[in-house]
Design goal:
Length: 282
C-alpha cells in the first residue's frame, strides 16, 4: 500500500507541473501585441508604465488640440498628454532654455526656424500642419471699424494686440498696419497681450474696443464680432509648423500624435474650427 501511495503521489505531482506549464504557455500565447503607430514603432502596452507627453502649442490651437488629444488618449490609454499653450515665440524661448517638450506646434515659421538654427529641432523633422487667417474683432454690439484706417477713430480708444516679439498674431497685425502706414499712429492705442486668448478676453470684456486675433479664435465667441478679415497680402503667411525636438523624452509617442492628427476624422476637428489643414508632404 505504501508503494502504491508513493507512486500515486509522483503521478499527481507530475500532473500538477504539466498543468502549470500548459497554463504558462497559454498565457504567453494570449498576451496582446504592443500597440504600434502607422510607422511601425511600438507605443506602450497595457503592461507598461503610463507615459506623459508634453505638447507646447500655440494658444490658437487650444480647443481643437484638446479635443484631438482626448481622442488620442482614448485610443492609446497608456499615453497622457500635457498641454502647454501660449504665444509661439514664448514657447520657442522656453524650448531654447531647456524646457522639456516632446512636441512643439508653432503659429508661425520664425519661432520654429529659430530652434532649428540652434539644433534643438532637426530641419527634416518639421511638418507644416495648418494655415489660418488674421481678423480684427470688436465687442458684440459695436460697429466702429470697417477698414483698418477706422482704428484711428476717436471711438477706438484701446486696441488689443499680441506682443509682436512673442505672439505671431501680434507680429502679423503690426505688419498689416505698417503696410497701410498706420502703425505709428495706432501704436499709442495698443495694449499688449501674452497670446491671442488674452486679446479675445480683452475684447469680449469690453476692456478693448478692437483687437487682432485669428479667424479660428472668433468661431465660438458670443461676446465678440468680426469687424473685418485682414487681407493676407498685407502680412506674411500664417502657417503652423510642428516638430518633435531632437532630445524629446518620448519621441515615438509624439510622432504617433502627429500622425494621429492626419487622420480624416481628426482633420475634421481642425477644419470645423476654421483652420486650413495642410496635406502631408509625400
Amino acid at each position: 500500500m505504501r508503494r502504491r501511495f508513493m507512486f500515486g503521489g509522483k503521478r499527481a505531482l507530475a500532473g500538477m507541473l504539466l498543468g502549470s506549464l500548459m497554463l504558462l504557455l497559454a498565457a504567453c500565447a494570449s498576451d496582446p501585441a504592443p500597440s504600434t503607430e502607422s510607422s511601425g514603432q511600438p507605443l506602450p502596452s497595457s503592461a507598461e508604465k503610463k507615459v506623459e507627453v508634453i505638447v507646447s502649442a500655440a494658444a490658437s490651437l487650444k480647443t481643437s488640440l484638446e479635443e484631438s488629444g482626448r481622442r488620442f488618449e482614448a485610443e492609446f490609454p497608456n499615453v497622457t498628454l500635457r498641454f502647454n499653450f501660449g504665444g509661439s515665440g514664448s514657447l520657442g524661448q522656453q524650448l531654447e532654455q531647456g524646457a522639456p517638450v516632446d512636441l512643439f506646434v508653432s503659429a508661425a515659421t520664425e519661432p520654429m526656424d529659430r530652434v532649428v538654427e540652434k539644433g534643438i529641432v532637426q530641419s527634416d523633422a518639421v511638418q507644416l500642419m495648418f494655415r489660418n487667417a488674421l481678423v480684427l474683432i470688436e465687442p458684440a454690439g459695436e460697429q466702429n471699424v470697417k477698414q483698418l484706417s477706422d482704428l484711428l477713430k476717436p471711438d477706438v480708444r484701446v486696441l488689443a494686440v499680441g506682443q509682436p516679439d512673442t505672439v505671431p498674431a501680434g507680429e502679423y497685425a503690426k505688419e498689416a498696419l505698417q503696410h497701410e502706414g498706420l502703425w505709428e499712429e495706432v501704436e499709442s492705442k495698443a495694449v499688449y497681450a501674452k497670446d491671442v486668448t488674452q486679446v479675445l478676453a480683452y475684447v469680449e470684456s469690453g476692456n478693448a474696443d478692437a483687437g487682432f486675433v485669428y479667424k479660428t479664435d472668433l468661431k465660438n465667441s458670443a461676446k465678440a464680432v468680426l469687424a473685418l478679415e485682414v487681407d493676407p497680402d498685407k502680412h506674411q503667411p500664417i502657417e503652423y509648423p510642428a516638430a518633435v525636438p531632437a532630445d524629446a523624452k518620448h519621441p515615438q509617442e509624439a510622432k504617433a500624435l502627429l500622425e494621429f492628427m492626419r487622420k480624416p476624422e481628426i482633420r475634421d476637428i481642425f477644419t470645423e474650427a476654421g483652420f486650413e489643414v495642410v496635406e502631408a508632404s509625400p
